[in-house]
Every structure is written in structure tokens, then in C-alpha cells.
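Feature request disguised as a bug report, sorry. It would help if multi-protein outputs had a clear separator. Right now it looks like this:
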Amino acid sequence: SYFILAFRDVDRAIRKHISDKRYLREQLDIVETLSRDYYNIFKINPKTGDVVILKLDGYVTKGMEGAGDKIYPYDVLYKQYVKDRVYSEDQEWMYDAISLDTIKSKLLNNPEYVSSYRVMDNGEVHYYQFTYIPINANIPGGDILAGFKNVDDIVASAKERQNLEILASTDIMTGILNRGSGERKVIDAMANNKPGMLCILDVDNFKDTNDYYGHNVGDKVLRGIADVLKLTFRDEDIIFRLGGDEYAVSVMNLTDEESGKAVM
């Protein structure tokens, strides 16, 4: 008997098989991640505009039912949802933001398309986020997953952090910058070679006001002076309270002495 012995390189086939399995795993991870984080998930065919509901919790868009194999036109999700659900001030932007043309354009060179919008629910405004992800990025025009979720808690947390930052930099008595934050802004301006004039101001005989009229009136005077400074100077100028009856203003973009005298 005779035998034929053949050898061939199977690296490419094995690598492709491993790559396909890894890619499939990545796609499943995307679906699982969306399913955990998003209330409503849709599969969209960008070529035909067909939509299949994969998950639907909470609000149901008119013309749609629950999750299943039923196919809906994208216009039902796109136009009806925006009309009935999205806050009036965001509707015009949203119509453009989630149109199929915009989505396809955004996903051409990006692995996902994410943005936020506001929803009106029972007279209250809520913050939502949408995410569009291609199911198979290697196939041009392949199906897209769309997820929608409420992000009120995230927005509230961000606002709280912002409020704390504002509070930390504000003089509680007068509402203008406190000494520390004001000085940091001036130092930063100097470090960036921004020209300006630093003015130091204090209130003559302020102690007499406190002694004669009381501290409540004295506090009103301090707040009134801060208000006058805000009205007198520009938004770009740095106005802050040094402490007591002393204030400072860094007048920005001022480069000559005559202009400085005119300001004072």
C-alpha cells in the first residue's frame, strides 16, 4: 500500500476561529452590559429601519408592545418617542440626534454614540441618556443596538459636586469669591501672562457702622458693597473678599496707568 502524507499551515484558520470566538464574546458582553444598565434596548437595522424590542421596562412608546420578535419601523421609536416623551426644549435637537442618518454618521469612526437629553414625566423633568452601538463593527451597515436609561442620580451627584465646589470657593457673607479662591485665580492669571491691575479696597470707619447700627446692618452693608462691585466691574474681572471690610478686584486686560486711574 502507498500513502500520501500532506502538511499544511493551519495557523490562519485557528487564529480566525479564536478571533471569531473572542469577537462574539465581546458582542455578547455588550448586550449583557446594556441589559444591566439600560431600561429599554432595541435592535435596529440601519438599512431597512426595522426595529426589534429586546428589552422594555417602564414607558412604552405608542405603537409598540413588549419585547419580542415583532418588527417595528424606526419612525415609531424615533418620532413618536420624541413627540410624546422628550422635553419640549430638547425635541428639535433630539429629532436630529437620533435620526438614522446621524446615527450612521456618528458610528462611522466611533465604537459607540452616546448623548443625553431630558424627559418630561408627570410634569417633572428627568435626565436620560441614549447609547447606540454596532453589533458587528466589522460588517458595514450591520445591525445596531440602542439603549435608553434614566441618569437622574448621576446628574444629581454631578450637580451636588458642582455646588460643593462653588460653596468652597464662595464667601458666605457676600456671595463673591473668598480670599483663597480669589488669590488662586489671580495667581493663575499672572502665570498665564494675562495683563491686569490688582485693586485693594477697604471701607472707611466701618467699625462705627457696626457699633452704631449693629452687626445685622453691618452685614447688609458688606453685601451691598459686594453687589456694587459686581455691577461696577465686568464678568471677566476677579472680585473677591479679603476679609472683614476689605475687598480686592483684579481688573483684567488692563495694560496702562492712565486706564488704571480711570477705573479707580
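(second protein starts here, but nothing in the output says so)
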Amino acid sequence: MLFRSVVPLLSGCIKSFETIGKSADSEEKDRYGIRTVGEVTSVGNADPVPLGGVGLVTDLEGTGGESANDGNRAVLEDDLKKLGVKNIKELLSSPNNALVMVSARVPPGSRKGDLIDVEVTLPPRSKATSLRGGLLQNCVLYNYDFAQNLLPDYQGNRGALRGHPIAKASGALLVGFGDKRTGDVSFRQGSLWGGGKVQIDLPLTLMMNPDQQLARVSSQVADRINEAFPGTAPGNPGNGPAVAKNNQVVVLKVPAQYKLNLPRYLRVARLIPLNGPGTSISDYQRKLEIDLLDPRHTVVASLRLEALGKESISVLKKGLESSNDLVRFSAAEALAYLGSPGCAEELARVVRDMPMLRAYAFTALASLDEAICQIKLKEILASDLDDEGRYGAFRSLRALDDRDRKSTRLNSSHIPLSRMPSSA
């Protein structure tokens, strides 16, 4: 993901903090007496989708070479033929070109047009020695599976079976990062950060629990989610992100503000009350307002207030006035995802003064598309904060910029294969 370098800075802290939040949420499940979406559903397809493909790298300045005459080469030759490329044998034997294996992982909930990171490697029997300076030509990435997973008694070829085209990748390779464990630098593999573009929507799903598989209940779940996130379906203004497909499945699109924090979106969505507006909800809100100011309950209370939607903004702003650091941070983080710019000052303070929560604050700042967030991030970038903090600010600004311009490029510096000379 484009934002992957911010969050992993403190991955141990993040996992610990999420675990604490989930534990507290479980312990206080019956505290409020409100039935939520999470009590009647479970999350489906929340794992990344692995992709693979066979591609061609050009512009290697003599470090390329012919690949083994195997199934991968046959796949690439077939793809090149379909593109109308001439002199394929000469193209693949050129010392300036190399067949490569291309892989990526698409995060769950990705939408068409999202950019993903791509890894490129030379096959073991390739005569190529280095990918330095290489340019990956347009390569289609497919999902895949293995026959033995589909047919347990299968005894044939153990290779992967190509599925559907999910993404495309191309662009200039970054090489020479090496192996962190051994310290060895390898030029036989490279990366394209944001070099792949997803071609289809991969929505999340909420699966109705077996005892709740009723059309009435699945429709109620979708309605409540859409009420909490009105008009947030990408490219479809006025419609919410949830659709009840049948009595078993509710399909979810990820609102733009949660694109960098999918786990939070799933938690918040499952904390949305199933009850409609009424006395019980009013009592619930009053309890949450009290708990927000209590450090023992503030993490769960802020998430539950966020799940109630923008009507919670005024309550959460009261949390910004607390003398407790955790209360102020919890309120500011929830306000960011609800689109309130009043959180920026507090989140910037957390970045400077609370390293244990810094990654969360950066993610929240990069998720709120407001000018004040860019101002605060630029101040952090220009400050005397440690290198890790300033790099986090840089990555956050880059994520905001990518969101603003919805980049239409796919590393467009590639050479159209149909016009490539065979000696390239």
C-alpha cells in the first residue's frame, strides 16, 4: 500500500493497541444494552488477495538474458502474441531484456483505480544477472489457486492455476535493497511502490450469523451502516456503502476516509447500533458521553460515538478539552474519521509528544482531507523532530496528495510493446 511505511513504524505498538481496544470492547459488550451490527454478523473476505503474473523488463543495458524454456516463458510468449508483438524470440533472448515473475497483494476492500505495491524477481534459471535500471512493461496480474485446494484428490500438475485479471503493473524498478537478515544486496529482485493499479472493485462482506439469516435483518444491517456513513459510496454520491445482497451477505465498500485504516472501519461498522433513533439511543449517547471522559472507557466509547456518525462530533469535541492525554487523543482520532478538522492540532501534538501513538495520529491526519492537516504535517516535516517522525509526515503528505489527485498514471514511462524494436 502507498501508506505502508507509516503504520509499520510502530507495528508492535499498533497490534498491542488494537488488542487492548478489542479486549475492552469485548468486556464492555453488555455495558450499554444496545444491540450492534457486530452481534449479528461476522467479517468475510478480510484477507489480502495474492496476485501473480509473468512480465517483461526492458532497458537492462546488457544485464538481461534468456529465460528457461518453461511454462512461464510459454505464458509470456502467448501474452506478447495477443499484443501483436513481432520477433518475440529475439525480444526474449536480448541481453537488454528479461522475463520476470511479478507479484502483489491487494488489500481487502480495494476499489478500482487504487494503487498497490508490486514485487519483481528473476526466475531461478534466468540468465539475467541484474534488474538495475529496468523498466517493467505492462503486465496483467491474476489471482490464482492450486488444483489440490480445489480438488483434494487431485494428483496432476502442482502448479498454480491462473484465475481472473485483477490488476495491471508497469514502471521503473527500484533495486538493491538486499536481505535484512543477511545484509546481502541483490539486484535480481526489485519493487514498484504504487506501480500496480487495481482493475476491479474488491468489496468487503459482512456474513449474517446462522441464526440471523433473514432478509429483514440483513436489510436492517445495510440501512444502519448507510445511515452512519451517508453519501460515502465512491463514485456514487447519495448512496451509502452497504448493500444487502441477500439474507446471508451484506456487501461493503470502504469509505474514502477509512482507506488507510481498514481494521478501524470494520470495528466501527460492527459497532453501529441496530436500533433506530429513539429513547434507548439517547440514553446510549449520554452513557458514551460520560465514558468518553473516563480514561478506562475512552477508547471504546470514542469508537462507539464514531459509529453513531456526525451527530457525535459535538460530544467528541468535549473530549478535546480533557486534561487526560488518552481521552484527548481518542476523541481527536474519532473526529478525524468523521471529517472534523478540529482534531488536527491535537493529532499533531500526539505526533510530537507521544511516540507510542504516533502511527495512529499520522494515519488519522492522512485520512482527513482538510487543508489544516497538510499545514500541520508540513510543520512536522520542517521541524527538528526525529528522522522517523519526519519521514512519517512525508509519507502522510504523500498519501494525502495521492488522494487529492487520484493519480491516473500507471508509471506511464513504459514503452508500448507493439512498437518496441526486437533489439531493445
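Even a blank line would do. Unrelated, but nice: The first strand starts at residue 41 and ends at 44.
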